[in-house]
Amino acid sequence: MAKDKDVIRIERESVVPILKPKLIMHLAGLIEHGSDRAEFLKLCKRVEYTIRAWYLLQFEDLMQLYSLFDPAHGGQRLQQQNLSSEDTDVLEQNFLTYLFQVMEKSNFKIVTDEEIEVAQSGQYLLNLPIKVDESKLDRRLLQSYFSKHPHENLPEFSDKYIIFRRGIGSDETTDYFIMEKLDIIISRIWACFLRVTRLQRIFTRKTSKRSTDPKKNDEITPDADHDDLVVERKRLENELSMRNLFGKITIQEPTFDRMIVVYRRASTKKKTERGIYVKHFKNIPMADMELVLPEKKNPSLTPMDWVKFLVSVVLGLVTLVSSLEMPKADIWVVIAILTGLIGYCAKIYFTFQQNMAAYQNLITQSMYDKQLDSGRGTLLHLCDDVIQQEVKEVILSFFILMEQGKATIQDLDHQCEALIREEFNEECNFDVVDAVQKLEKLGVVARDTIGRIYCVGLKRANEIIGTTTEELVLKAKQEAITA
């Protein structure tokens, strides 16, 4: 009988997963006439230059505001501005407003409690409970923002920090997992012991709050349908069998392709914190999402580990005393009991030490390998990302209208998604409404009497947009070189 697959179902995102140069050159290659191909390439450049100009002022405001709240040098700039506390509050709320707008345009979504529950329903490489030291985090900044800008499905920690995520991938690890296998075997023996001694009821009652079936919740969105993205989880406890007990095992975990964390540290009696931290991570396994948490506490043995430890010691000592009180105490039985007791305690200790070493390694890796950037670098990346996505959406929509003729919004949406699927072998929930709005703003599409959308010719589209400043600069440079 085949095992049920442990899968996570996620709503497809609106990100066009194709590099812009590849998209443009491939679409240009589908155009038959060379003159039309040249006009199309010119149009693509003008679309990008124009969209970049539209966003320029907004992005400049964002970067100027962040310069006041940069944790490294923002404090000095704020002092130079000689602003009142109330004025500073207004500016930091303006910054967050711009930031959240850019995040939305970049198709980032706020991580919800349900997503975190799904992510933490299994383990991957991180085997220690990681908690945030909430006393080190400010509550006023985000609380004030969300009171003025309500959002649905905010996580319970949204007053202290916020986590954005975008893109879904998969990560595989192949290893012997010696200590992890030993831990699973001992845990299964422990569970069997609890059932036999009927102590399971006590522990089940204590842990019932977290005993929900993760497979029932392995859906990131409640409105999932057949078009959703399905990613399989391969956990060590499910893959372990007698056949691979001493061999290598491959485990697999879905990943968030990009994650961004926003928070502020708590103020102290000596210093009022105004810095806003914006940290950008890549390829974070869902089960190891705790890696991106701010102000993490140093992990320690869990309460359950201590309960197991103390119960084992008590039971071992009771059994040992009972054996010694017998008229003819068997020295080998006493040795066996002591060996088992010491071995189990040593197992708890060494497992914890190994997990601590793995935790430190993962933290180091997240800092050097998985952290893309922070602060200003992250914001610049986001701004460019917004432009790239908008340009790709506009070019795709215009190309479909140019090739297929008039179309309704729904038809255009389906045709754009079909083109991405057939020509690039990628899936995307295309954001057609935003693309059409941009095309209308550019003045290169219109609607007929029944609401269908149609575009002007390529040459006319280039004339409507007109020569851009970037083109004039490039022309001047070429003339200077040839002069």
Automatic annotation (TrEMBL):
Keywords carried by this UniProt record: Membrane, Transmembrane, Transmembrane helix
One family name in Pfam for this protein: DUF3754
InterPro entries the record matches: DUF3754 (IPR022227)
Transmembrane segments: 306-325, 331-350
Top-rank lineage group of the source organism: Eukaryota
Name of the protein in question: Uncharacterized protein
